[in-house]
Write a structure and sequence with these properties.
- The chain has 283 residues and is mainly alpha-helical.
- It has two domains: 47 residues, no CATH class; 162 residues, Multidrug efflux transporter AcrB transmembrane domain (Multidrug efflux transporter AcrB transmembrane fold).
- The protein has eleven helices and six strands.
- The chain has a two-stranded antiparallel ribbon. A two-stranded antiparallel ribbon has the order 3-4.
- The longest helix is centred in the middle third of the chain and has 31 residues.
- The radius of gyration is 34 Å and the shape is elongated.
- The N and C termini lie far apart (101 Å).
- 21% of the residues are buried.
């Protein structure tokens, strides 16, 4: 029916079902003026197919299409389905396609882990800044995180594993593991500079003295993650991305830390030069 210039769909029900369609057309209707007219005079009555079930998600009617995946990766199947839908299905205005089930749960989990990664970086920055009493030194130490992320992605690519939930958990672990090497270097450099050593000498000495503890802590974790990365053991296939992430990220971060941290430290915390007057008096 039309009401105030707009079309409205009405769904009416009978207290008792009509035996024939002619009986439905003869159903009396009373108008506001008090007149009684049959339904067939004001409406078209015909047979039509209706949905056996009406599903709603978020107050919107929806049609659900289910499918199972066997022998293929979920990401590949989803990408193929999306291409086929865009190429063959032209949705009218007001219609959209949404992914439900496990695909939606995985997407929400990735969003939650992404927030956790940002929160982890902030907490690490805040704790280091409070301990060292500086805002620049945490930035120097956090430079180990990008190299760890690159190493993790390279390891996943070489191992042929996707970046799934376990891989994201490995990234979250790397935030706390990779910064340890940077803390060892920066702490030693601060100690030597506090004793009056020049910046270049302190950086070179830090790399030589802290090399052994850095290798000991890193190799312990690397060898501990090696069984997970190789998928050794029953049911360990699901943890392969986690092992590869930590193994690759920590390996690359360990070697790059000895070069990246001194360079960034020199750029952000350069050695202060004495005033001209003081140098003239010393001469």
């Amino acid at each position: 029916m039309r009401f105030e210039g707009k079309s409205r769909d009405l769904l009416l029900g009978l207290s008792a079902p009509a035996g024939r369609i002619d009986e439905l057309r003869g159903l009396p209707l009373r108008s506001p003026a008090g007149l009684t007219v049959p339904l067939g005079e004001v409406a078209q009555v015909r047979y039509a197919d209706g949905p056996a079930e009406i599903r709603r998600v978020g107050r919107a009617r929806c049609a659900e299409v289910r499918g199972e995946i066997a022998g293929r990766k979920r990401a590949e199947v989803r990408a193929e389905v999306e291409r086929a839908v865009r190429a063959r299905l032209k949705l009218p205005a007001g219609y959209r396609i949404e992914w439900e089930g496990e695909s939606r749960s995985i997407a929400e989990s990735f969003q939650s882990l992404g927030v956790a990664l940002l929160l982890g970086l902030f907490l690490v920055f805040a704790v280091i800044a409070a301990q060292l009493g500086s805002l620049r030194k945490p930035l120097v130490i956090l430079m180990t995180v990008p190299s760890a992320a690159v190493g993790a992605l390279v390891a996943l690519w070489l191992g042929g594993s996707p970046l799934n939930i376990n891989g994201m958990l490995g990234m979250l672990m790397l935030i706390g593991i990779a910064v340890n090497n940077g803390i060892l270097l920066v702490d030693f450099v601060d100690q030597r500079r506090g004793e009056g050593a020049p910046l270049r000498e302190a950086l070179l000495e830090a790399g030589a003295v802290r090399l052994r503890p850095i290798l000991m802590t890193s190799l312990t974790t690397i060898f501990g993650m090696l069984p997970l990365a190789l998928g050794i053991g029953e049911g360990s296939e699901a943890l392969v991305p986690l092992g590869l992430t930590v193994l690759g990220g920590l390996t690359l971060s360990t070697f790059l830390t000895l070069w990246v941290i001194p360079v960034v430290y020199t750029l952000l915390l350069p050695e202060r030069r004495a005033p001209l007057e003081a140098r003239a008096e010393a001469a």
